[in-house]
Design brief:
The structure is a homodimer. Chain A is of the alpha+beta class. Helices cover about 35% and strands about 20% of the residues of chain A. Chains A, B: GO terms for molecular function: catalytic activity; FAD binding.
Chain lengths: ~475, ~475
């Protein structure tokens, strides 16, 4: 337990604005994004440089503090929320936002871990390049958080997860030393690659301070369609046909269920010009960097095949940017629609794409039997096998109480279905503090033992984000 | 040091054909692919199942043996060669070759680590799918070796390195326990990902026994061209233009220098119908899974732009599969051409693509000054910044003696150039036993300390491939 005046050396190191302690200043750092947990911290540290991060790690060790790295605080699992009773200082990277370099001939970008994702995207776009990582929270999430959670998002289908975009990494380790591997190389086979352990480690192994990411040519050409799926339309077969017929130029293949669309309409208080078919709807988008690719023809031809198969009843091609924008807005405002209806309990499930139909059928049956009155909102990145399968809080019920009931009950039945299909209880969001019990329950002991070995090896004193992920294992 | 009859329990475990000890049988396992090192082993173990691998690891520990995992023994750095004096048994995965599953709707393949790469490619192709990993040695290398070395190859430009293809992994750990993570999932964010540490670890952390790989739709449509580069043609700019104009459908962008082409002609004893320009030649290929993409038009349009820029003097489009085959054969037989001329010392250099011209200029100047009589053969995966920069053994000189001279001298000057440009001394081949000294010399201590921490944590007794990579660090 730290001494009462132990924050003074941090003030000396980080300067006046570098240490926040006023309760009203701390509030936004200690409440998680979904407002499920109110954490506690003596102070928020706001370093301005890698050297300051190294210094504060050394000070924290000396004075008996733990550290919780935090980016934009937009996570869904409480991974950046300091726990009451742990004497954890929040390390906010929000003042380390520099775009360090954009190399248009090497297609790479280097930046501080505190850079906001949208700013990094903009720096790439300014040179006619694309940083394909794209999330709902891109205007406020920071790259360090994206790295810590191996963020997915809207373009995984074509470009992969955050890990797939990383070429270089810079990490302040638990002893305050610096691991710097910021090379802009696509190939660098020099044995075991230490940077991989920090990606997805949720800040439990070190504090990521910088990253080098792959870029692509800007995708200036697009073709977008809204597909109304027929009764019983087989999503895996549709996704496979789309991959093949579009030559993998599809960047988006998002399922939108009728119930999710209805939630958006209710929030707007007006009917929506687009509708789902009996099998729901799909937002499909192709992108290319060159006008030489006849995207509209490719999309039309693909849709014709899907209709010939009887899988798609009707399809609308976006004829203008406004129409395209409307399709996207519907998809992007589903979470708000859920919030407007009273909030939702969010399952973040993945299964192999080939088992999607099985999951939806089995999950649907289970819910119809056990919770017939609860509205289900499901949507998501079907091209990756990732379904957001959310239960809307029934009118009049308390959101937290409902969440606890679902969490302790039917959620486990849904996870059991997903796992039996070779799936996962956590596709995108990670473990943090809210899913520790799920990690313990649904992953095998050898995996957890390996994770613990890595933790002990890299952070033997448990300075880094203690309590997250493995908890006390 | 093991007792003399300590191999008996291995025979009981693995059966008659499972333990080879006759010197003439051992020879092909103990000589490295490039014939630079003759290793030594008491026996080669040939397990048939994961359980047998677990059993032999436990026996090895009990009887004081080390283990050297081996796939196709096609590596370039002695990573699979047992060292004299270490009492290391070779664990050959050559009897674990099963293709476990191909899922055409999920675009995944699962197989044993002993599967030959070409067999895995064929299993995918049989279902109209593509496993894009493609190497010169694909007819004999095995996937466990590809994983251990994070193999690159001919299609990294579009599909990435081996790591980028891995979804699942199965590893027998140093204590004989099994880490099995063979899920076919594109998204599974459940914290620190232990499987990443085994990829590229060259068998020093465990024995990979199985893998799940991403597949793509078969690329049934191709367009291929041979480009003659103009004097001073800027490779980085050309590569960037090609990426953009072909919408990243380029799978191959291989530089072939005039000297490399000459070596192939000499080996054939006949002139070659294709020639390089003053800046060398590039083999460029686009691929697509759909006839809806007008690949010939895309390629033609791109070539026109390159010629308008004055970067390409002339270009030949392959008009038939035979012509395409001939272009590829030239590229693929450069290593044989070098061998025919007396062998070569191979530098496996990477730089950021944007620094390629700088590297070639500086390297060329250095060689012209210091080794004016030595033939340089350079070629390779320019789209990835990876140049094979090889010095042909001069007529009449002993290959090994020449190699030692280069290795101790000018090689370091070339590495210094590459490193100053943000590059690497090892793009593809890895460290193994031949580049241990380079690893120690050219990587920073924090990186090596992290690698050693991982080694100690996962293999505290040094059972797994001791001597490879970190050596005695």
């Amino acid at each position: 337990m730290p001494e009462p005046d132990a924050l003074e050396p941090f003030r000396t190191l980080l300067g006046a604005g570098g240490v926040l302690t006023a309760p009203d200043m701390l509030a936004r750092y200690t409440l998680d994004h979904r407002e499920l947990m109110r954490g506690e911290t003596p102070a928020v540290l706001r370093p301005r440089s890698v050297e300051e991060v190294q210094g504060l790690v050394r000070l924290a060790r000396r004075h008996g503090y733990g550290l919780v790295p935090q980016g934009g605080n937009t996570g869904y699992v409480g991974g950046a929320t300091p726990e009451p009773g742990r004497h954890q200082l929040v390390v906010s990277l929000e003042r380390m936002t520099r775009i360090r370099a954009v190399d248009p001939l090497n297609f790479t970008l280097a930046c501080d871990a505190g850079a906001i994702l949208a700013d990094a995207q903009a720096a790439a776009a300014a040179q006619d390049l694309l940083l394909p990582l794209s999330l709902g929270s891109e205007g406020s999430c920071r790259l360090g958080g994206n790295l810590g959670t191996n963020a997915g998002g809207l373009q995984v289908l074509r470009y992969g997860m955050t890990r797939d975009l990383v070429l270089g990494l810079e990490v302040v380790l638990a002893d305050g030393s610096l691991f710097s591997d910021m090379r802009h190389l696509r190939k660098n086979n020099i044995g075991t690659d230490p940077k991989q352990v920090f990606i997805g480690a949720e800040g439990t192994l070190g504090i990521v301070t910088g990253v080098v990411l792959k870029l692509w040519p800007a995708q200036g050409f697009r073709a977008t369609a809204w597909l109304q799926l027929a009764e019983g339309a087989p999503l895996p077969e549709i996704a496979a046909l789309v991959r093949r017929e579009t030559a993998d130029l599809a960047t988006t293949f998002e399922l939108i269920s009728a119930s999710s669309l209805a939630l958006v309409a209710e929030m707007r208080g007006a009917p929506i010009g687009l509708r789902t078919g009996p099998g729901g709807a799909v937002l499909l988008e192709l992108q290319a960097s060159s006008a030489r690719i006849p995207l509209d023809d490719v999309l039309m031809g693909t849709l014709e095949l899907l209709m010939e198969q009887g899988w798609v009843e009707d399809a609308i091609l976006a004829q203008s940017e406004a129409q395209r924008r409307e399709m996207w807005t519907i998809r992007e405002t589903i979470p708000e629609g859920e919030k407007h209806a009273g909030g939702s309990f969010k399952h973040d499930i993945a299964v192999p794409v080939s088992r999607l139909t099985d999951f939806l059928e089995q999950g649907g049956r289970l819910l119809a039997e056990r919770l017939p009155a609860v509205r289900l909102s499901f949507y998501g990145h079907v091209g990756d096998g990732n379904i957001h399968y959310n239960l809307v809080v029934p009118k009049g019920q308390d959101r937290l109480a409902f969440s606890r009931t679902v969490e302790a009950g039917i959620a486990h039945d849904l996870y059991a279905i997903a796992l039996a299909l070779g799936g996962s209880f956590s596709a995108e969001y990670g473990i943090g503090r809210f899913k520790r019990d799920l990690l313990a329950r649904y992953t095998d002991p050898t995996r957890r033992a390996l994770m613990a070995t890595l933790k002990r090896g890299l952070d033997p004193d448990g300075v880094m984000n203690a309590g997250a992920m493995l908890g006390e294992e």
